[in-house]
Amino acid sequence: MQVTSINQNYLELQGSYLFSEIAKRRTKFMQENPQAEIISLGIGDVTRGLPEAVLKAMHGAVDELAQPVSFRGYGPEQGYDFLVNAIIENDYRTRGVEIASNEVFVSDGSKCDVGNIQEIFSADSIVAVQDPVYPVYVDTNVMAGRSGKYNGETKRYDNIVYLACTAENDFKPLLPDRKVDLIYLCYPNNPTGMTLTKDELKVWVDYARENNCLILFDSAYEAFIQEDDVPHSIYEVEGAKEVAIEFRSFSKTAGFTGVRCAYTVVPRGLKGLDAAGNSVVINDLWNRRHTTKFNGVSYVTQRGAEAIYSPEGKAQISELIDYYMTNAGIIRDGLASIGLEVFGGVNAPYIWLKTPQGMDSWSFFDKLLSEANIVGTPGVGFGQSGQGYFRLTAFGSRENTVKAVERIRKLSL
Ligand code: PLP
Questions:
Q1: Topology of domain 10-49+312-409, per CATH?
Q2: b vs e for 75-91, b when ≥16 Cβ sit within 10 Å of the residue's Cβ?
Q3: If you write DSSP's letter for every residue of 85-106 in order, what string do you get?
Q4: Where are the transmembrane segments (predicted)?
Q5: pTM of this prediction?
Q6: For the chain, which terminus, N or C, has the lower number of CB atoms within 10 Å?
Q7: For 31-42, how does the pLDDT look when each residue is reduced to its tens digit (9 = 90+)?
Q8: How far is the CA of 245 from the centre of ligand 1 (A)?
Q9: H/E element holding 184?
């Protein structure tokens, strides 16, 4: 029995081959080598516990919910004022950026936000993505019918504009060579771990202003930035408020991958055109979408997120980030010391390496698994420009990170 017609666009989606293939190869290896002690440096999830200040605030909030007098039910869909104000003050005002409270939308994760945002734009918008890419940007546009057909030979969608990021361009994509409407930029970048300076980001903001396009700026790894010339927000660049939406997440910043909290900034100055050529405030559309389809992040979670901005919270987060970034340094230095070409890992928890001797990404995966019992992520899984690269993450324990690097150093590469 066929109950109804389906959204044909979903059939254009390619299977999530990457992580299932990794799991398949890992399982096979473990079956054949049950004594092997495998270390995963492929994980994109954090592993440390929540900061003490967050836990304390969440416990307090749970207790509040027990009493009718302090109980909270449905809250504002856009987030409670206490969290929105903490975001505006700490993430923006301290950097000289003024964001109004009705420009911030608290949500249960950046994955949802970067995935959902495309809904408010025209079905025929042309989308540009960096290659390699966080797959959510592509797949959500495939679902919406913007991608065109998948080409099995090029392994790309016909209507998506791919901006190659490779060692040849220092992972800084060239501006699009055709008219595009939406540009997804991710900095600090997943998977390459690379960043842009403020001047380099300005080139994109200026381009968007001159060519009427919108930048969707995913800054999920902002908290890992260490270098002074790397902007923490696209709005540090003059004029960006008229051409950019920014996404931030507490997931990696404070161990919220399971707790779930993030936010999106949609400046009031962002305008689009309707079919009749009239100007429309994009913030109004996103507000409408958010309030129609989302009922707010839990009070307990938002109190936990607010605590990140307390003096204790800031100190504890800084320790957390230091822990992961020390791991990143250990991986980076360890691999560089045996002559591997490594990128990222300075302002991001990802290390992107060029596979030795021109090996393809999957051959290197197999070598690392079989000879060092280490699991990483083949770069080609993030896009064709990732072929010949490999991603390692700094989210493991210190002990495993050190052990993994020692094992790689012993390989003949
Ligand atoms: N954006 C990028 C680039 C990511 O790598 C991730 C998570 O891995 C996300 C967004 C999703 O973050 P969240 O946990 O807030 O949904």
A1: Aspartate Aminotransferase, domain 1 (3.90.1150)
A2: bebbbbeebbbbbbeeb
A3: HHHIIIIIGGGT----GGGEEE
A4: none
A5: 0.97
A6: N
A7: 999 999 999 999
A8: 15
A9: strand 182-186
